[in-house]
Amino acid sequence: MKHLALLLLCVLAFVPLVYSFGMQIEPKTKECFSDTFEKHRQVKLNWQVSRGGLLDVNVVVRYDGPSDRPFTDPQNIYEKLYFEKDHAPGQYDFVTKKAGVYTICFDNTMSRFTAKVLQFNYLIHNKWGLPEADDDDQDPSELLQPMEKSARRISEELEVLSVHQQYMRNREMRHIWTQRSTNVRIFWLSVLESVALLAISFAQVYYIKRFFKQGRRLI
Protein backbone atom coordinates (compact mmCIF):
# COMPACT_ATOMS: atom_id res chain seq x y z
CA MET A 1 0.00 0.00 0.00
CA LYS A 2 2.86 2.34 0.83
CA HIS A 3 4.55 1.62 -2.52
CA LEU A 4 1.28 2.30 -4.35
CA ALA A 5 0.92 5.66 -2.60
CA LEU A 6 4.51 6.58 -3.50
CA LEU A 7 3.91 5.60 -7.12
CA LEU A 8 0.77 7.75 -7.21
CA LEU A 9 2.68 10.72 -5.80
CA CYS A 10 5.39 10.26 -8.41
CA VAL A 11 2.82 10.15 -11.20
CA LEU A 12 1.22 13.35 -9.93
CA ALA A 13 4.64 14.96 -9.73
CA PHE A 14 5.39 14.09 -13.35
CA VAL A 15 2.02 15.13 -14.76
CA PRO A 16 2.85 18.04 -17.08
CA LEU A 17 1.11 21.35 -17.50
CA VAL A 18 -1.43 21.21 -20.32
CA TYR A 19 -2.68 24.27 -22.20
CA SER A 20 -5.56 23.76 -24.64
CA PHE A 21 -7.06 26.30 -27.05
CA GLY A 22 -9.63 26.46 -29.83
CA MET A 23 -10.01 29.17 -32.44
CA GLN A 24 -11.14 30.10 -35.93
CA ILE A 25 -8.49 31.37 -38.34
CA GLU A 26 -9.94 33.64 -40.99
CA PRO A 27 -8.68 33.44 -44.59
CA LYS A 28 -5.56 35.44 -45.43
CA THR A 29 -4.66 35.70 -41.72
CA LYS A 30 -2.23 34.17 -39.25
CA GLU A 31 -2.68 33.55 -35.53
CA CYS A 32 0.32 33.34 -33.18
CA PHE A 33 0.67 32.49 -29.50
CA SER A 34 3.77 33.19 -27.42
CA ASP A 35 4.86 31.77 -24.09
CA THR A 36 7.99 31.96 -21.96
CA PHE A 37 9.70 28.63 -21.31
CA GLU A 38 12.58 27.79 -19.02
CA LYS A 39 15.62 25.90 -20.22
CA HIS A 40 15.43 22.11 -20.62
CA ARG A 41 11.65 21.98 -20.93
CA GLN A 42 10.12 19.34 -23.15
CA VAL A 43 7.16 20.75 -25.09
CA LYS A 44 4.70 18.50 -26.89
CA LEU A 45 2.51 20.35 -29.38
CA ASN A 46 -0.64 18.78 -30.84
CA TRP A 47 -3.13 20.34 -33.22
CA GLN A 48 -6.09 19.40 -35.39
CA VAL A 49 -8.11 21.26 -38.03
CA SER A 50 -11.74 20.25 -37.51
CA ARG A 51 -13.43 22.38 -40.19
CA GLY A 52 -12.53 24.34 -43.28
CA GLY A 53 -11.48 23.45 -46.81
CA LEU A 54 -8.92 20.65 -47.05
CA LEU A 55 -8.31 20.73 -43.27
CA ASP A 56 -4.87 22.20 -43.94
CA VAL A 57 -2.85 24.80 -42.06
CA ASN A 58 0.77 25.95 -42.04
CA VAL A 59 2.36 25.45 -38.61
CA VAL A 60 5.44 27.40 -37.50
CA VAL A 61 7.32 27.16 -34.18
CA ARG A 62 10.02 29.76 -33.58
CA TYR A 63 12.33 31.03 -30.86
CA ASP A 64 12.03 34.79 -30.33
CA GLY A 65 14.95 35.12 -27.92
CA PRO A 66 15.18 35.98 -24.21
CA SER A 67 12.18 37.75 -22.74
CA ASP A 68 14.25 40.84 -21.88
CA ARG A 69 16.19 40.95 -25.19
CA PRO A 70 14.00 39.60 -28.02
CA PHE A 71 15.58 38.91 -31.40
CA THR A 72 14.84 41.19 -34.34
CA ASP A 73 15.00 38.09 -36.57
CA PRO A 74 13.40 35.10 -34.76
CA GLN A 75 14.78 31.61 -35.34
CA ASN A 76 12.39 29.11 -36.92
CA ILE A 77 12.51 25.74 -35.16
CA TYR A 78 9.79 23.96 -37.12
CA GLU A 79 7.63 24.69 -40.15
CA LYS A 80 5.22 22.36 -41.94
CA LEU A 81 2.13 22.58 -44.14
CA TYR A 82 -0.23 20.16 -42.41
CA PHE A 83 -2.95 18.13 -44.13
CA GLU A 84 -5.14 15.77 -42.15
CA LYS A 85 -4.90 13.00 -44.71
CA ASP A 86 -3.72 10.25 -42.36
CA HIS A 87 -6.66 10.73 -39.94
CA ALA A 88 -4.26 11.67 -37.17
CA PRO A 89 -3.64 14.90 -35.26
CA GLY A 90 -0.55 16.94 -36.03
CA GLN A 91 2.22 16.58 -33.50
CA TYR A 92 5.64 18.10 -32.86
CA ASP A 93 7.90 17.60 -29.83
CA PHE A 94 10.90 19.76 -29.01
CA VAL A 95 13.19 20.57 -26.10
CA THR A 96 13.89 24.18 -25.19
CA LYS A 97 17.67 24.46 -25.35
CA LYS A 98 17.50 28.08 -24.24
CA ALA A 99 15.22 29.99 -21.90
CA GLY A 100 13.09 32.65 -23.50
CA VAL A 101 10.00 33.33 -25.57
CA TYR A 102 8.74 30.67 -27.97
CA THR A 103 5.96 31.37 -30.46
CA ILE A 104 3.53 28.98 -32.15
CA CYS A 105 1.89 30.27 -35.35
CA PHE A 106 -0.95 28.84 -37.44
CA ASP A 107 -0.94 30.36 -40.91
CA ASN A 108 -4.04 30.42 -43.14
CA THR A 109 -2.81 33.04 -45.61
CA MET A 110 -2.86 30.49 -48.46
CA SER A 111 -6.67 30.27 -48.19
CA ARG A 112 -8.67 32.87 -50.11
CA PHE A 113 -12.19 32.31 -48.83
CA THR A 114 -12.24 29.46 -46.28
CA ALA A 115 -11.77 29.94 -42.54
CA LYS A 116 -10.25 27.10 -40.51
CA VAL A 117 -11.51 25.92 -37.13
CA LEU A 118 -8.57 24.58 -35.16
CA GLN A 119 -7.90 23.09 -31.74
CA PHE A 120 -4.42 22.77 -30.30
CA ASN A 121 -2.72 22.07 -27.01
CA TYR A 122 0.80 21.87 -25.71
CA LEU A 123 2.21 20.00 -22.73
CA ILE A 124 5.22 21.14 -20.73
CA HIS A 125 7.47 19.22 -18.37
CA ASN A 126 11.14 18.89 -17.52
CA LYS A 127 13.33 17.24 -20.12
CA TRP A 128 13.97 14.09 -18.10
CA GLY A 129 11.35 14.50 -15.41
CA LEU A 130 14.14 15.79 -13.16
CA PRO A 131 14.72 19.00 -11.20
CA GLU A 132 16.13 21.94 -13.12
CA ALA A 133 19.51 21.78 -11.38
CA ASP A 134 20.39 18.41 -12.94
CA ASP A 135 23.18 18.43 -15.48
CA ASP A 136 21.97 18.05 -19.07
CA ASP A 137 25.00 15.94 -20.00
CA GLN A 138 24.35 13.39 -17.29
CA ASP A 139 22.70 10.16 -18.36
CA PRO A 140 19.09 10.28 -17.11
CA SER A 141 18.98 6.47 -16.80
CA GLU A 142 21.55 6.71 -14.01
CA LEU A 143 19.49 9.27 -12.11
CA LEU A 144 15.98 7.90 -12.31
CA GLN A 145 15.01 5.25 -9.84
CA PRO A 146 12.82 2.34 -11.01
CA MET A 147 9.71 3.83 -9.44
CA GLU A 148 10.41 7.19 -11.05
CA LYS A 149 10.87 5.48 -14.41
CA SER A 150 7.53 3.74 -14.01
CA ALA A 151 5.85 7.00 -13.01
CA ARG A 152 7.29 8.82 -16.02
CA ARG A 153 6.22 6.01 -18.36
CA ILE A 154 2.68 6.13 -16.95
CA SER A 155 2.65 9.91 -17.34
CA GLU A 156 3.68 9.64 -21.00
CA GLU A 157 0.98 7.04 -21.65
CA LEU A 158 -1.59 9.35 -20.04
CA GLU A 159 -0.44 12.16 -22.32
CA VAL A 160 -0.88 10.00 -25.42
CA LEU A 161 -4.30 8.84 -24.21
CA SER A 162 -5.40 12.43 -23.56
CA VAL A 163 -4.31 13.56 -27.03
CA HIS A 164 -6.15 10.71 -28.75
CA GLN A 165 -9.27 11.31 -26.68
CA GLN A 166 -9.27 14.95 -27.75
CA TYR A 167 -8.75 13.87 -31.36
CA MET A 168 -11.72 11.49 -31.18
CA ARG A 169 -13.90 14.24 -29.66
CA ASN A 170 -12.96 16.57 -32.49
CA ARG A 171 -13.75 13.92 -35.09
CA GLU A 172 -17.09 13.27 -33.41
CA MET A 173 -17.92 16.98 -33.52
CA ARG A 174 -16.93 17.14 -37.18
CA HIS A 175 -19.20 14.19 -37.98
CA ILE A 176 -22.05 15.87 -36.09
CA TRP A 177 -21.55 19.06 -38.12
CA THR A 178 -21.47 17.04 -41.34
CA GLN A 179 -24.66 15.21 -40.38
CA ARG A 180 -26.47 18.43 -39.50
CA SER A 181 -25.33 20.08 -42.72
CA THR A 182 -26.48 17.05 -44.73
CA ASN A 183 -29.87 17.03 -42.99
CA VAL A 184 -30.38 20.73 -43.74
CA ARG A 185 -29.50 20.20 -47.40
CA ILE A 186 -31.84 17.22 -47.67
CA PHE A 187 -34.64 19.26 -46.08
CA TRP A 188 -34.30 22.17 -48.49
CA LEU A 189 -33.89 19.82 -51.44
CA SER A 190 -37.14 18.09 -50.43
CA VAL A 191 -38.89 21.46 -50.16
CA LEU A 192 -37.59 22.46 -53.59
CA GLU A 193 -38.70 19.12 -55.03
CA SER A 194 -42.19 19.52 -53.55
CA VAL A 195 -42.50 23.06 -54.92
CA ALA A 196 -41.35 21.86 -58.35
CA LEU A 197 -43.91 19.01 -58.34
CA LEU A 198 -46.73 21.38 -57.34
CA ALA A 199 -45.70 23.85 -60.03
CA ILE A 200 -45.62 21.12 -62.68
CA SER A 201 -49.02 19.80 -61.53
CA PHE A 202 -50.65 23.24 -61.71
CA ALA A 203 -49.05 23.83 -65.10
CA GLN A 204 -50.41 20.53 -66.42
CA VAL A 205 -53.94 21.24 -65.12
CA TYR A 206 -53.84 24.74 -66.58
CA TYR A 207 -52.61 23.45 -69.95
CA ILE A 208 -55.28 20.71 -70.14
CA LYS A 209 -58.10 23.13 -69.23
CA ARG A 210 -56.88 25.59 -71.81
CA PHE A 211 -56.62 22.83 -74.43
CA PHE A 212 -60.24 21.75 -73.92
CA LYS A 213 -61.48 25.35 -73.99
CA GLN A 214 -59.77 25.93 -77.30
CA GLY A 215 -61.22 22.62 -78.62
CA ARG A 216 -64.79 23.74 -77.83
CA ARG A 217 -64.29 26.99 -79.70
CA LEU A 218 -63.10 25.11 -82.77
CA ILE A 219 -66.22 22.91 -82.72
Automatic annotation (TrEMBL):
<feature type="signal peptide">
    <location>
        <begin position="1"/>
        <end position="20"/>
    </location>
</feature>
<dbReference type="InterPro" id="IPR009038">
    <property type="entry name" value="GOLD_dom"/>
</dbReference>
<dbReference type="GO" id="GO:0012505">
    <property type="term" value="C:endomembrane system"/>
</dbReference>
<keyword id="KW-0732">Signal</keyword>
<keyword id="KW-0812">Transmembrane</keyword>
<comment type="similarity">
    <text>Belongs to the EMP24/GP25L family.</text>
</comment>
<protein>
    <recommendedName>
        <fullName>GOLD domain-containing protein</fullName>
    </recommendedName>
</protein>
<dbReference type="InterPro" id="IPR036598">
    <property type="entry name" value="GOLD_dom_sf"/>
</dbReference>
<dbReference type="Pfam" id="PF01105">
    <property type="entry name" value="EMP24_GP25L"/>
</dbReference>
<dbReference type="GO" id="GO:0016020">
    <property type="term" value="C:membrane"/>
</dbReference>
<keyword id="KW-0472">Membrane</keyword>
<dbReference type="InterPro" id="IPR015720">
    <property type="entry name" value="Emp24-like"/>
</dbReference>
<feature type="domain" description="GOLD">
    <location>
        <begin position="30"/>
        <end position="124"/>
    </location>
</feature>
<keyword id="KW-1133">Transmembrane helix</keyword>
<feature type="transmembrane region" description="Helical">
    <location>
        <begin position="186"/>
        <end position="208"/>
    </location>
</feature>
